């Protein structure tokens, strides 16, 4: 039976091999997004989502036999390197939404300025990294690192333990957000919940 994302279910008998396949699949998704520049802003968004999914997966499969820290750091830096570009697009989208909700004569000029800024940031980024080739090399390194891991040593019990730990972290973040009420605490809670949701998707596919 296909998963909600349209992917084939992972084997419950061989979680290591199934996780390896999913990890490499996400590497390919990042690469495909960075190579597809017909709509660069949609591609950047897709790449960042695939990076988050892969990092959530690596958090789920933490195991003493697996060396995943360097790959995770590379993915984190890759996602951070795209964050300003994504944020610039989100600001344009938010301004367009506000224009539709609160019509005012100043909005067209504001949106035009924000769009110019967004496009300038993208152009500058592509000048420093034409065709995102440097970023693509990072993905290739991560892909090679993950392919070489001794995935056969991974056990379902480790996945369940890691998933329970993520759930506890999300619950603690929720409590801190409730006590604090600040934007930063709420943001941390949202990130923990998003990671937990992604890990639950994988756990469901693994029949945990």
Describe the structure.
With 208 residues, this protein is mainly alpha-helical. Helix content is 77%, strand content 0%. It has helices spanning 15-35, 40-60, 69-101, 107-128, 133-147, 156-180, 183-205. Helix 1 packs antiparallel against helix 5 and helix 3 (69-101) runs antiparallel to helix 4 (107-128). The protein is globular and about 60 Å long. The model is unreliable at 1-6 and 8-12 (pLDDT under 50).
Keywords:
208 residues; 7 helices; 0% strand; globular
Percent strand equals: under 5%
Estimate the global geometry from the Cα principal axes: globular
N-to-C SSE string, H for helix and E for strand: HHHHHHH
Number of discrete helical segments = 7
Outline the biggest β-sheet: none
Query: What's the overall average pLDDT, rounded?
Result: 90
Number of strands: 0
Rg over CA atoms, rounded to whole Å, is 19 Å
- Give helix % range: over 70%
Low-confidence stretches: 1-6, 8-12
Question: Terminal Cα separation, in Å?
Answer: 15 Å
Q: Briefly note the structural class of the backbone.
A: mainly alpha
Task: Describe what is shown at a glance.
This protein has 208 residues and is mostly helical.
Set out the fold topology.
Layout: H1 15-35, H2 40-60, H3 69-101, H4 107-128, H5 133-147, H6 156-180, H7 183-205
């Amino acid at each position: 039976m296909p998963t909600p994302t349209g992917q084939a279910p992972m084997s419950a008998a061989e979680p290591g091999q199934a996780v390896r396949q999913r990890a490499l699949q996400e590497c390919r998704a990042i690469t495909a997004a960075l190579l597809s520049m017909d709509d660069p802003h949609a591609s950047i968004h897709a790449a960042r989502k695939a990076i988050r999914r892969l990092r959530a997966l690596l958090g789920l499969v933490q195991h003493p036999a697996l060396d995943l820290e360097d790959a995770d750091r590379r993915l984190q830096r890759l996602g951070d390197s795209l964050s300003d570009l994504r944020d610039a697009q989100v600001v344009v989208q938010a301004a367009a939404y506000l224009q539709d909700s609160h019509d005012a004569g100043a909005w067209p000029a504001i949106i035009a300025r924000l769009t110019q800024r967004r496009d300038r940031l993208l152009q500058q980024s592509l000048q420093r990294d034409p065709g995102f080739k440097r970023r693509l090399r990072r993905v290739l390194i991560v892909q090679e690192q993950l392919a070489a891991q001794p995935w056969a040593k991974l056990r379902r019990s480790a996945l369940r333990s890691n998933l329970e730990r993520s759930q506890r972290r999300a619950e603690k973040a929720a409590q801190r957000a409730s006590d604090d009420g600040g934007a930063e605490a709420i943001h941390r809670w949202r990130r923990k919940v998003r990671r937990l949701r992604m890990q639950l998707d994988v756990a469901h596919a693994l029949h945990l």
